[in-house]
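User: I'm curious whether this sequence folds into something compact or stays loose and floppy. Could you predict its structure so I can see for myself?
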Amino acid sequence: MSDDAPDSLIPYDEIVQEALRAVVGRVLGEIVEGGSELPGNHHFYITFKTGAAGVSIPPHLRERFPDEMTIVLQNKFWELDVREDGFSVGLSFNQIPAKLSIPYAAITAFVDPAVDFGLQFQATVADLAPEEHDDAENDAPERPDRTSVEGEEDGSNVVTVDFGRKD
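Assistant: Here's the prediction. I'll summarize afterward.
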């Protein structure tokens, strides 16, 4: 038996990534169906590539976050609109309202710390290492025990899918 796995003619990694991103859409859709109120202590950290195709954010945010940005859906958000290919939402950044439109393909992480759930995705934009950036400061109350998305608890509920694509 050979240790070399043959190259697949079926893009399994892309299929799985697309299916897992659909989880984000379904969760956000449930929130809209519930009247855009987050149940219990649920809140979401959504990290996305700001330069990905279809991402629409105000110029001042794109300048501040040229590669990647994390938003928090918790207390102050409005006009959450969930579509088949992505979502849009209104948020406030340093008391300045902004409308963001994010395709699911641009999302690199989705975390609900209230239940220790997280998903991480392969970037669909050029494989560049993410740059360090400031917090988005979109008016969510600070958590004293705040950790990074990847450092959330022990990571036992974080699903990382990386099939190590051969090109």
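Summary: Residues 12-128 form a domain with the SH3 type barrels. fold (CATH 2.30.30.220). The chain is about 15% helix and 30% strand.
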